[in-house]
Amino acid sequence: MTQVLSPTPEALALASQLLHDGQLVAFPTETVYGLGANALDAKAVLNIFAAKGRPADNPLIVHVYDRAQLTPLCEVSPLAEKLMDAFWPGPLTLILPRKPAIPDEVAASLPTVAVRMPSHPVAAALLRACKLPIAAPSANRSGKPSPTTAHHVLVDMDGRIPLILDGGSCDVGVESTVLDVTSGAPCILRPGGITKDMLESVLGHVDVAGSVLRPLQKGEKALSPGMRYKHYSPDGQVTLVEGAEADVVAAMAKLAAHADAQGHRACVMCFTEHMDALKDCHPHDIGSRDNASEVAHRLFDTLRRLDEEHMDVIFSEVVPPEGVGLAVMNRLGRAAAFHTIQARDVLKDEEA
Questions:
Q1: Domains in the chain, ordered, with CATH?
Q2: Please, which residues have CB within 8 angstroms of residue 94's CB and are 6 or more apart in sequence?
Q3: Which one of 116, 208, 319, 335 has the lowest number of neighbouring Cβ atoms within 10 Å?
């Protein structure tokens, strides 16, 4: 039986003891809920993979509350220090050369380790209480949408872990930005709330990995969490609809109606501005087309509600892949297994 507790001093003490005993604890961060284990205990870390059903070649992020904790874990360059000064605590994960204290199980046997300092008060309190570096991916079953509430965690992890600390809804709603600073130009491996422009205001030029908006190629290693081909996915098939705004709205209405006629439970994920136009298509509001941060905040909660409603065919609008929109499209692309359709192609039959 999994307990869900408010983060009282007593609950934090229990969570700390569980982590020291090699068990798992789910906890909120400013991005999504994490599923934590003692990062220095290889056996405990293996419990994460078992609970999630996660491939062991997918590296984990190590969370700390103090930079001094990094000394035995990784090599910290002056460039990394500069980024920590600017963005820590906060939703930025840095890829750094690892030291022997980090088990292979955490790093997926890579020569690097991903580290970050969360800003959420419950995450910070837990890290201070246990005084351990905590390895933690998102607290969901592997491949499913990441959890942004304790209830989301319970749906996936009830009976699999002993404790969930309930800190309410997460602020950002998508996982942290992952930045590789181990060689050459700094490179975004996974976009998040810390955008390319924000990073470049501190560093100058920053690259974006080609795999951000495409699947990994055959033989290409996952250097960061969140790089899998299909990830963040609801049970239904997600299709992204691209094109001019009016065309997308018309195409989504046509696609949803056709899917309904075939006996599917179909719906659309659309911007607030298009809810009325798509009112007959089981619309789910993902936020304003002019506010990518709002879309990011709502995204995973929306995908999870579609599962609760047993939707099996889902059509979604897209946002420009700029700023936080890059993070949104990274998640939506993987949720859809990169299945995209052009609105004009859908509407061609009507024009003929």
A1: 3-213 (3.90.870.10), 237-351 (3.40.50.11030)
A2: 80, 83, 84, 114, 115, 116, 179, 181
A3: 208
Asked if the peptide bond before residue 89 counts as cis, ω within 30 degrees of 0, the response is: yes
Q: Which of 258, 228, 225 is nearest to 333 (CA)?
A: 228
For the stretch 277-302, pLDDT in tens is 999 999 999 999 999 999 999 999 99
Residue 202 and residue 90 in contact, taking contact as beta carbons nearer than 8 Å: no
Closest CA to 222 of 263, 278, 178: 178
Instruction: Return the residue matching tokens 């220095």.
Output: 40
216 secondary structure, DSSP code? P
Contact 290, 168 (CB under 8 A): no
* Paired tokens of 326: 């890059």
Task: pLDDT band for 233, please (50, 70, 90 cuts).
Answer: confident
**Closest to 195 (Cα-Cα) out of 183, 208, 185:** 208
The answer for residues whose C-beta is within 8 angstroms of residue 278's C-beta and 6 or more apart is 249, 252, 253, 256, 268, 270
Distance between CA atoms of residues 302 and 306, nearest Å:
6
